[in-house]
Amino acid sequence: MDQTLAVTTASSRRWRVLAIVVAAQFMFGVDSFIVNVAIPTISVELNASSSQLEAVIAIYLIGYATLIVTGGRLGDIYGTKTVFLAGVIGFTLTSLWCGLARSGTELILARLAQGTTAALMVPQVLATLHVLFPDAARAKAFAIYGIVLGLAGAAGFALGGLLVTLDLGGYGWRAIFFVNGPVGLIIFAAAAWVVPQAPRRPGTRLDLPGAVILFTGLLCVIGPLLFGREVDWAGWIWVVMAAGVAIVLIFLRYERGVAARGGMPLIDLALLADSAFMRGLGAVFCFFFANQSFYLVVTLYMQMVLEIPPLPAGLVFLPLALAFVIAARHSGARARRRGTLVLIEGCLLQIAGLALVALTVAMIEAPTPFVLALVLIVVGYGQGLVMAPLSGAVLSTVQAASAGSGSGLYGTATQISSAAGIAAIGSLYFSLDHAISGQFAFLVALSVIAGSVAGSIILLHWMRRAALVPT
């Protein structure tokens, strides 16, 4: 795909394109975290329940996860630039809707819309990198992508705390969404000017029935996790989730039928036969299941148990972000020498950091923001070692013609796991907080998160043995 993009690989223009697309990735990443520190304020102003608060965070990821494969395939069909621009303007408009929401239910709907428009925008980022950097500069490009991905989380916490505290224009928490207006317009204008156009593939069209089936299946699998606790995990919750699994299996069978008839499936079925890629996706699922839920429970513990105000709570993550950047800068060169061993080492270091956080919380009844910031540095360094080279390692066996589909599957794994982690570990935290204590809930959540990272280590080792990923 995207032959026009490939031509630019010999010029400096591709680095300007990289800056633009990762800026969009940064905006998306910031909005994955910026809500966390505003949760107590949103809860009071909109009178939202704990399940609605979880949904405000997770529904954004669910909307994105359920449609990202579709977004990636649309990029393959219509060209990355066209779909990217549509996603950026849609994301900007739905961000404004989030800021205007007048109830918890409306905010959830607006966040769902925001996530679905991100599904058009974000897959084009990895697809563009995959095509623009097939040479020796690939490792540097993906390292930059990984650094931006990590910084987005810390920036989201810090910016969210700052905006809520400053209460600019009297908008309070709404400013965390309004800020996307000017930023989105700048990215749109820059992309329209700099990003090269990719021609549409003649004779191809979107597998719309497949897109509907996949959306329905994934929504049935993840959605009930958000509200199961409020209905005491009634039997129908499990029925819906089981139906979702069955629908996903039906989707895979349907896609094989589309390919047999000579059509263009929503996903490139050849990717499912790539053992290294599929094992890598499993490792990605475990890693991001732990990653997103970790930030949620740390924020809940700081603001609802320790009663740390939004701005100090957001600033706690800045040392973590610095450690992440340092690790990410080192991981690219180390990954070229040691391959996936660097990812495994990063996961082990992250588990050690989680144990240090748990030990601190167990021994100190009310740790200060300064103490928490210090112990989180180890977690941040471990995450940086993994996240920067992870996407490049998992996508290394994907052909350029399937870059959009491969990136879509990678993005689906990250966001489904993130949403599932928030829903499952968030529910566990709230249940134990209500039944026992916030400190106990936090410690149990950390142990589950560490177990998920351990699962990622096992799958990364399995991926390494596939002999399809360079080691």
TrEMBL record:
Keyword Disulfide bond among record annotations: no
Stretches assigned to the Major facilitator superfamily (MFS) profile domain: 17-464
Cellular compartments annotated: Membrane
Listed PROSITE patterns: MFS
Sequence intervals crossing the membrane: 17-39, 51-70, 82-102, 108-133, 142-163, 175-196, 208-227, 233-254, 310-328, 340-364, 370-395, 407-430, 436-460
Keyword Metal-binding among UniProt keywords: no
A GO cellular-component term linked to this record: membrane
UniProt keyword terms in alphabetical order: Membrane, Transmembrane, Transmembrane helix
One Pfam family hit: MFS_1
CDD domains cross-referenced by the UniProt entry: MFS_MMR_MDR_like (cd17321)
Domain of life: Bacteria
A GO molecular-function annotation: transmembrane transporter activity
Topological type in the membrane: Multi-pass membrane protein
Name listed for the protein in its UniProt record: Major facilitator superfamily MFS_1
Organism for this UniProt entry: Rhodopseudomonas palustris (strain HaA2)
